[in-house]
Amino acid sequence: MSVFKVFRIAASGLTAERLRMDTIASNLANANTTRTPEGGPYRRQVPVFAPILDQAMQRGAAPRSSFSGGGVQVVGVISDPTPPRRVYDPQHPDADADGYVDMPNVNVVTEMVDLITATRAYEANIVALNSAKSMAMRALEIGR
Questions:
Q1: Which distant-in-sequence residues (6+ apart) come within 8 Å of 50 by Cβ?
Q2: Fewer CB in 10 Å around end: N or C, the chain?
Q3: One-character DSSP codes across 91-111
Q4: Which residues of the chain are under the pLDDT cut of 70?
């Protein structure tokens, strides 16, 4: 496997995890937003990732090695279909006739766990990138 391919794979992982952390930050910032331009409460956003396969694997050719991955790509960001939480607060301006308010489907604990996971994955990609860089530098030193 080429060093440049390792760099591309790690960079795609860094980009994906950064988007994941940005999405989590947006979810946390809107954890109490009960009114959006679309109407109703804020809906939790979730990024969707897919693997990038080697072109040889996509054409159906025999693999050169057992590894066929090329990194990860962001397919999109979707809204979580979980229904909003209903909270009794008759004084809230967005309360319905029964005094209930539809709150966002954002669970702060879940978001924090996802943030820690995304941070660890980001760090792992940095370690892989630095290891590949170190190996490339050592390989260049052999030629001296």
A1: 72, 73, 75
A2: C
A3: TSTT--TTSEEEEPS--HHHH
A4: 1, 54-68
H or E element, residue 2 = none
Q: What is the pLDDT of residue 1?
A: 61
Structure token digits, residue 108:
């702060």
pLDDT for the residue numbered 57: 52
pTM of the model: 0.83
Residue 66 buriedness (CB in 10 A; 0-12 / 13-18 / 19+): exposed
Answer for the pair 127, 5: CB distance below 8 angstroms, yes or no. Answer: no
Query: What local confidence, expressed as pLDDT, does residue 3 receive?
Result: 79
